[in-house]
Specification:
Layout: E1 4-9, H1 13-16, H2 21-39, E2 54-62, E3 67-76, E4 90-97, H3 100-103, E5 106-107, E6 118-126, H4 129-132, E7 136-143, E8 151-159, E9 171-174, H5 180-184, E10 191-199, E11 212-222, E12 234-241, E13 250-251, E14 262-272, E15 281-288, E16 295-302, E17 308-309, E18 312-313, H6 321-332, E19 338-343
Parallel strand pairs: 1-14
Antiparallel strand pairs: 2-3, 2-9, 3-6, 4-5, 4-7, 7-8, 10-11, 10-19, 11-14, 12-13, 12-15, 15-16, 17-18
Length: about 350
Amino acid sequence: ESDTASEISFQFSKHKKTPSIGSHSSDMASVSSVSGSVLSVYSGDFGSVDAQGTVEFAVDYDEKNREFQVHVSQCKDLAVVDEKKGRTDPYVKTYLLPDKARMGKRKTSVKKRTVNPIYNEVLRYKIEKMVLLIQKLNLSVWHNDPLGRNSFLGEIEIDLASWDWSNRKLNWYPLKPRSLSAVNGVDHRGVMNLSIKYVPPGSLGLKNPPSGEVHIWVKDVKDLLQLRPSGVDSFVKCYVLPDTSKKSYQKTRVIKRDTNPVFNHTIVYDGFHTEDLKDACVELTVWDHEKLTNHFLGGIRLGLGTGLSYGISVDWMDSTQEEVAFWQEMMSATNEWIEGLLPLRSL
């Protein structure tokens, strides 16, 4: 049924006892690194101040150098973050959406102790014009905090598909509160077609299998983000959390130049006890493959979404209703393939 298969042993014994804080934080660090670059588009402390003021900037596309340019001029009348000291240390950050992971952020320098900062800086993206035209520019203003709790001061979002490219002048824009779509991470990243099943220990005969098995059949993915005109070179990573070791890690082969890749890859994890299913989480993430670095495209987490694993609070136990229902159906229908079509998300 599949052209590639992996079988690996997954032992939960070390997690049945209450894990030490050290090992727990190590797991968390590894997991957060998967999606940290994506989440950083809205990292920080959002609730401290209301958005106010304006920002002056211009956009242009340099055909010769194939470069998108954002000329950030200045801001006026920004909110005061530290009212006791009357202090705001603002900087401007830009993203191209929904392709946050690939393009990364660009940001200006920090201007200290001012609500009327002047930047006169150009933020540059090397990108093909036809790819740029399916993006949105998100420009946000932030207060820089030495301890890392940066405060959101406002944003503006521009649909580049409808932008008048003859307009190269600096224009003023009112800063707006954070949009609901940004808060909820609502952006289409594609859909994964997969099947899963749980085989309890001894269910196929005497001591067969000797321990429980979770089978994951990654069939295909539809409508991935098209990062370049030729498509995308994608592969799928799999972990069974809370284990983030090399023993847990599996991946498919790379499918080149295709936004609808067919993987047809099966992974089998043994070492499962039935009671482990409520504390474990299968994390499947899709990545674009490049020589220097891989770019996160989206993922799913299959589990009960309780926020807890072996009695410890963890942020990766955050499965959506669809993902939870899929996992619950597998738990209740042992030895049967459960088919699902689940939307990728930013995790």
